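Lab notebook, bench 4. Continuing the backlog of folding jobs that were queued last week. Each job is logged with the same field layout so the records can be merged later without manual cleanup. Today's entry covers DLX4A protein, a 90-residue chain. Filled in by technician R.K.

JOB TYPE: sequence-to-structure
TARGET: DLX4A protein
LENGTH: 90
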Amino acid sequence: APLPPAEPEKALAVSSGELRLGGKGKKLRKPRTIYSSLQLQALNQRFQQTQYLALPERAELAAQLGLTQTQVKIWFQNKRSKYKKILKQG
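JOB STATUS: finished
OUTPUT FIELD FOLLOWS
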């Protein structure tokens, strides 16, 4: 028997880390990353040395910690904004 034609509205589109069912309905977000204490220790140590990572540094750190470069990038972004917020409060 021939296969029924693919239903385009059931196709999964992935954009900027969000899963969407054919552009309809709610966005399905990826669950938030849970970092191990070892990963956090390394990330925090690195942040104390420098608040900004160059691309090769980010790639290396991600590889060492078994994270994606995006996870490392976003962790640093979040950490910088948290740090600035704390500085603002005095």
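OBSERVATION: The helical segments are 37-49, 55-65, 69-89.
SIGNED: R.K.
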